[in-house]
Amino acid sequence: MDKLPKIGLPIIVILILVIxxxxxxxVTIDAGHAGVLYETLGDGVDPDKEPLGPGFHLIAPWxxxxxxxxxxxQLFEEMRVLSSNGLEIQIDATAWYNPVTADIGKLHNQKGxxxxxxxxxxxxxxxxxxxxxxxxxxxxxxxxRDAIQEExxxxxxxxxxxxxxxxxxxxIRDVTLPPTIxxxxxxxxxxxxxxxxxxxxxxxxxxEAEKVRIEAQGKADANRILSASLTDKILQDKGIEATLKxxxxxxxxxxxxxxxxxxxxxxxxxx
Length: 271
Fold this sequence. Notes:
Blueprint: H1 3-25, E1 26-29, E2 33-39, E3 44-45, E4 55-58, E5 64-69, E6 73-82, E7 88-99, H2 104-110, H3 115-132, H4 137-141, H5 145-160, E8 165-176, H6 179-229, H7 232-247, E9 254-256, E10 266-268
Organism: Dokdonia pacifica
Keywords: Hydrolase, Membrane, Protease, Transmembrane, Transmembrane helix
Membrane topology: Single-pass membrane protein
């Protein structure tokens, strides 16, 4: 009886040590994440070693795993930049990005987990300053927004190239101009719209007038051709034809043939 506690104590200690070792050695990586293995007794992170994927892993208890999210992430950025004429413009943008999973070891060694602040944010701000500085406030506010958005994306993509980061897209959510400039642009756009509307009505009226003129000219030309083709002989033949048709009507008439200045038949009475 006295020996059992002495034997049981070492077993309890060993079990506790095993539990501690297992707790230190067991690592679970969530879906959409990857782990970088840091070897404490080695050279740290091996950049060429494949990262740990989602699931359960066992590692040496003296090592540790640095977790990285590999899913697409988004950054909301508000920037104040200058237009081509020196006016301050506020740009609200959203960037979609994710680290390249296979290169997480290299990303960790060279940039660390705060790669967002070290690479992506400075790149977007630099690209926005460069691109917006080539445009006027009016272009930023209206016609060139899509082009500016694409240029900022391309400029940022060049900067983060070979940085083990994949930039998926950049969207311009809003462009805020100084109130006085915005009002002036809106007035100008309204005047241009009214001018375009007036020009449209003017062109429509001109086309309608041209249509009426062409129709009138066509009728005049038709009458002139018809008048030139109607000789006295044709008129007499047409008159005779009309008289014959009238004479065939059931209504009583008196037809005098050979009367009148033109020699055409005369129709007297309609009873």
